[in-house]
Amino acid sequence: MSNIRHKIQGLTRDIGFPVRRLLPAAAARTVGPFVFFDHMGPVEFDAGTTEGDVRPHPHIGLATVTYLFSGAMMHRDSLGVVQRITPGAVNWMAAGRGIVHSERVPEDIREQKVPVHGLQMWVALPAGEEDGAPLFHHYPAEQMPVVEVGGAKLHVLAGSAFGASSPVATASPTLYVAGSAEKGAELEIPADVAERAVYVVKGDVSLDGEPLEAGTLAILEPGAAVALKAGSDAVFMLLGGEPLDGPRFVWWNFVATSKDKIEAAKTAWNARDKSMFPDIPGETEWIPLPVH
């Protein structure tokens, strides 16, 4: 019997550059607290352009988690934070009742033609924290614990895994690990987390002998350890955690426990209500509310 519940290939979306969207999907809306998963790049951007820039936009009820394999992004938000995101680091921004941020490609990355390649995740905040104050935390790559198991190198980005614990402060039990493995490396994924998934970024791996190619998100059955083996040099992610404390509504950049909260956020963004969505210092652009 297979320990893979679902295989998700994702859909390619154009957000100014192509991304592969894995969550939400028809087969699975969430994995633990993760409600959104985009794989962006690798893609090069031309110097002197704004290609790849994500202009100021709002969020409620979630935490954004940005992780890069190459390139860099410049984060700015309505708290006044300006932070360059570099490979291996973790940016954790909790929107709470409302935040605005932008992510732009630095000019040196454009000029040097460095590919931008990474993942953007959203984690739904617990119901008791979705109306809390927004916050931002940056964790440099050197703060992430690294564990080597069976030929695999594992960076523990959130939660505890393989005997190591991340310094990232999460709002609910969360698992997030970046792994790289040489061909032939073997790793057992324990069943100590309620909901788990494996995403193959590059190369190919097998789970209990069942092959997974790059770009595949495998949702695992709960309660069973799973053997991962690298069929080639590979990069993969392990994500999951405890199930959400109830259903979530997701519309555009908003995540909430009720449709009323979504509607209130839509009205506030349309009205440019600065009590909910303050301006970002130094930014003058903004992304209008979608019409759909």
TrEMBL record:
Pfam families: Pirin, Pirin_C. InterPro entries: Pirin, Pirin_C_dom, Pirin_N_dom, RmlC-like_jellyroll, RmlC_Cupin_sf. Coiled coil: none annotated. Residues 17-123 form the Pirin N-terminal domain. Residues 176-271 form the Pirin C-terminal domain. Gene3D superfamilies: Jelly Rolls. PANTHER family: PIRIN, PIRIN-RELATED. Belongs to the pirin family. This is Pirin family protein.
